[in-house]
Design a protein that fits this description.
Length: 232
């Protein structure tokens, strides 16, 4: 059970933390930024290895709407991560300082834009698997079903969704995701912790939205199946 908790909970949480840390480029400077990114890519390789059976099962089983959404999300994430890795190698000035492939501004911009998209898609990815996460958490903590606990968790999810929407606006995420430019940058000389708090709730809010969207799709698929069975 501890191994499952490590692979299903701790590993993804550490990768998400490293991703958020890497966003604080103007606070960390280039060296730590690249180290955190390299560690994240290393853990990503481990994560893919631990979940290699998922890839082997792609050609088997029935594809309902929910499974298609999960597949598209994984492909989308895979493409964006690939762009992030390639641009990271090309513009590296610390970890791969001897290579120094390019300082092209367009490559640097593509690196940042892909990084912001990775943050959002990772959150969507977490939301699509949130039921499994909660199941593993419940098993590790040996929690029994509780209506009170479920109600508290739903209230927490609603609050995260609201705060996530607010932080999305505060950070100007929409501008970052649309290859737009902004003259407003986070002032790390006066505030550091709020930066990480805002990005954390943005990811949490997107994950919550993704989770409930998948729940709705699951209900729609069940309704469609029942309707088809009723007609036959």
């Amino acid at each position: 059970m501890l191994r499952v908790a490590r692979d299903r909970l701790l590993l993804p949480a550490v990768m998400a933390a490293l991703l958020i840390l890497a966003l604080a480029y103007w606070w960390l400077d280039n060296g730590p930024h690249e180290i955190f990114g390299t560690l994240m890519f290393g853990l990503l390789g481990w994560h893919l290895t631990m979940n290699r059976r998922w890839f082997l099962k792609l050609r088997s089983g029935h594809y309902d709407t929910r499974r298609w959404v999960v597949l598209v999300t994984h492909i989308w994430l895979g493409i964006t991560i690939t762009v992030l890795v390639v641009t990271s190698v090309l513009i590296s000035r610390s970890v791969l300082s001897l290579a120094q492939f390019t300082n092209n501004v367009s490559v640097i911009e593509l690196h940042w834009f892909s990084a912001y998209w990775v943050v959002i898609i990772v959150a969507v990815h977490a939301g699509t698997h949130w039921t499994r996460v909660m199941t593993v958490t419940g098993n590790v903590l040996r929690l029994s079903p509780s209506p009170i606990r479920s109600g508290i968790l739903r209230l927490a999810a609603l609050l995260l969704l609201c705060f996530g929407a607010w932080s999305f606006f505060v950070l100007g995420v929409s501008t970052k995701l649309t290859f737009g430019y902004s003259l407003e940058f986070w002032d790390f000389t006066s505030r550091v912790s709020p930066f990480f708090a805002h990005w954390t709730v943005v990811m949490a809010g997107v994950a919550v939205l993704s989770h409930y969207a998948m729940t709705c799709l699951r209900l729609l698929d069940k309704t469609r199946i029942r309707s088809t069975e009723g007609q036959t």
